[in-house]
Specification:
Layout (H helix, E strand, L loop, with lengths): L20 E5 L3 E6 L1 H10 L5 E4 L4 E4 L1 H5 L28 E5 L4 E9 L5 E11 L6 E5 L48 E3 L5 E4 L13 H13 L16 E3 L2 E3 L3 E2 L7 E3 L4 H10 L5 H12 L4 H8 L3 H5 L12 E4 L2 E5 L4 H5 L1 E2 L14
Antiparallel strand pairs: 1-2, 1-3, 3-4, 5-8, 6-7, 9-10, 11-12, 13-17, 14-16, 15-16
Length: 366
């Protein structure tokens, strides 16, 4: 909540943010101590609002454009005069002042009439002010501090039949321009880890999952969780682990496996890459693919490229195709490229006690 009390820092110069104005509310009467930002918010909802600026010397009535054009000199006046105290024996003429306050309004001005005996005999009301909803208070102040004891009572008089006056704002200078302040400039603070390191701005949405569960629903959800507690209670498993049997050995370690031989679908692939799969049991690397593509561009065909690839040392390393590495995901058969079908039942649910491997075979492993 914004602090509406005007405050000063004696160690710094005053600025425009310290300035406060007021206005007359039809519901609460005179509202004082609002900032320029709050004045703009109120004026946007209540166009034509007249704001009130008071200082030691005068009372000014302003529209929102005048409020936005205020400077600190309009409120904070530095006189440079020093206080020398009160000289009781001085014969300076003092003018007692009438101070009217309260009542939910502002602007009432009057002059006290002092008799020859030094007492207040009457009050000359100069301005009735505006916005008073109940009886204000009044007091007489003597700048010299000599007179005292005057007791004033204020009476509210009826204004007769109320009338409604409509004001049409059709002049260019009546157009109001609002300067709405950013209300989220403060932010939510910073976040720190367990070591005190700053890890960024704190965002409440990080801890909100967007759910709309009520308290009763959350309580029921937690109760159901407790009723379904696992046995033994210290385990977090909701189902017993799987078991696999291989070579007369039972193991709980399982690995997902798949192979094109269990289910495959034809696909499109680079012709040179297909030769790598067919001959060497692997996918072609970028440099090799570019080399053989250049050979194609120079006039060679795929049959000639395949014959040239069989002259490579790698063709001997894979036993001329007999011990090439296993490729469970793709293959090249009968002039067609195939890749394994992930929707096939075996490819989706098959498990093994050992992980998949594409190691190169040997003559003895055939």
């Amino acid at each position: 909540m914004t602090d509406s009390n005007l405050k000063f820092n004696i160690f710094e110069d005053s600025n425009i943010d310290d300035l406060r104005v007021g206005y007359i509310s039809p519901d609460t009467g005179y509202v004082a101590g609002i900032t320029i930002c709050e004045a703009n918010d109120y004026a946007k909802l209540n166009p034509g609002t007249i704001f009130i600026l008071k200082n030691r010397d005068q009372i000014r009535y302003l529209n929102i454009n005048d409020v936005n054009n205020l400077t600190k000199e309009d409120f904070f006046t530095e006189t440079g005069d020093s206080c020398g105290g009160i000289d009781i024996t001085a014969t300076t003429p003092c003018k007692p002042q009438l101070d009217l306050f309260g009542g939910g309004g502002v602007g009432a001005l009057g002059n006290p009439v002092i008799g020859k005996d030094g007492g207040v005999v009457a009050v000359d009301l100069v301005a009735g002010g505006y916005g008073y909803g109940y009886t204000p208070n009044a007091r007489i102040k003597d700048p010299c501090g000599i007179g005292a004891g005057a007791d004033l009572r204020v009476e509210m008089v009826g204004s007769g039949d109320s009338t409604v006056e409509y004001i049409e704002y059709d002049d260019e200078e009546d157009f109001e321009e609002y300067e709405i302040c950013n209300k989220n400039d403060v932010g939510f603070g910073r976040r720190y880890d367990v070591k005190g390191k700053d890890i960024g701005e704190w965002n409440p949405n990080l801890y909100f999952d967007g759910g709309t569960l009520s308290f009763d629903e959350e309580l029921k959800k937690y109760s159901d969780f407790l009723l379904k507690a696992p046995n033994p209670f210290w385990t977090t498993r909701t189902e017993p682990p799987l078991k696999t049997t291989s070579d007369n050995k039972i193991s709980r370690a399982t690995y997902d496996v798949f192979h094109w031989a269990w289910g495959a679908k034809p696909g499109e692939n680079d012709p040179i890459d297909n030769l790598y799969i067919k001959l060497f049991g692997r996918r072609g690397e970028p440099s090799g693919l570019n080399y053989w593509r250049d050979r194609i561009a120079s006039g060679r065909n795929l049959i000639q490229i395949e014959d040239e690839m069989k002259t490579m040392p790698e063709w001997k390393e894979v036993c001329e195709g007999e011990c090439k590495p296993v490729m469970p995901d793709v293959t090249y058969l009968g002039g067609q490229f195939y890749e394994y079908d992930s929707k096939n039942f075996m490819n989706s649910f098959a498990i093994s006690p050992v992980p998949m491997s594409n190691v190169r075979g040997s003559y003895y492993s055939r």
